[in-house]
Amino acid sequence: MAAEKTSRISGFYKMPIDERIRIITEQTGLSAEDVNLIKTGEGLSFDAADHMTENVIGTIAYPFSVAVNFMVNGRDIFIPMAGEEPSVVAAASNMARIMRNGLGIKVTSTPPIMIGQIQITDTPDMEAAIKVLTEKKKMLLDMANEVDPVLVKFGGGAKDMELRPIETETGPMLIVHLLVDCRDAMGANAVNTMAETLAPLIGELTGGKPLLRIISNLADRRLCKAEAIIKKEDLGGEDKVDRILLAWAFADADPYRAATHNKGIMNGIIAVALAFAQDHRALEAGAHAYAAKTGRYRSLSVWSKNENGDLVGTLEVPMAVGLVGGATRSHPMAQIAVKILGCTKAQELAEAITAVGLAQNLGALRALTQEGIQAGHMKLHARNLVVMAGATNEIVEEAVKQLVDSGQIRFNKAQEIVAKLKG
Hints:
The chain has about 425 residues and is an alpha+beta fold. It is about 50% helix and about 20% strand.
């Protein structure tokens, strides 16, 4: 039975791996089989990999970590993350810790609506085409829902249709948007199948030629919004809050800065997506497109200061994730990630991912406006170097300290320090 759950674990990163696994096992109720899978690192068999994609000759592993300290919507959760970049998990966990003092992170989400696009070219009469499709909308939605009765049974399915005449370099086109509630699926297969089913009939009704029929990764009907208040004293005072606001304003005004600012947000989002075997390419594309929704590429996050001088942050992003279908169901480590997070619905996963994105953004802004981004990166790089140089668990911390203090974060210096510490 899991122990009384709290994700607030001090010094988790300093513990031996076996101790971390023990704590997560107690807190989340992992089975002995799950623990064995984690410890052996045999998450994906060759046979399973061969069925996932083509031309398989092996597999590649990423570090599988757990972000601690997160309180999301009043609930303590552990958030699995996968990735190779130093500082990402550390920054998320550290910022989640100080966000707890402002009652954690509140996340809301819209229904899981995805958009299927049907492109109609050479429409002889655009006005007449729009009129006939408007009149036939219910019939078309019913036809789409016949394709996936299981989705409809669970409350999902095609819910609405929008008609978008657009001008292009090759002339006018009518773009039909099919709005589909995908429930706990990411939805690509269901949406694409519905769009392909409707396209020929829509062509007949309009007199135009159907061409593309494909899901849009700009999932701006499937949004998640995370909000948090960070006490000014937890950042070092109101002047530190003001510095963060200045850094954010730079990102919001300048696309050159916004690209890197938003990349930092996606560092956290993609790491969680990888742990759950999600389509992280779709998340990346959707987020950056959403950042340009005003016609100018801007910051995905918004930061401000309240009447108490505390920092207030919000992050709103498209979040097309699923727990049914796809690799999430077939990848054993993704299933362990689901158990650790304790999510039963795709929207719960979406909300956890968005919370990490906001925490990650705060971590980057804090580092940039205080000690500088390289300080944390170099300390973690120093850890990697001393381990490569042969440091054992007993001397790792001292070796890292000496390497950082030396100001020479290089492998040959790490070798020298490790050799001395080993006597």
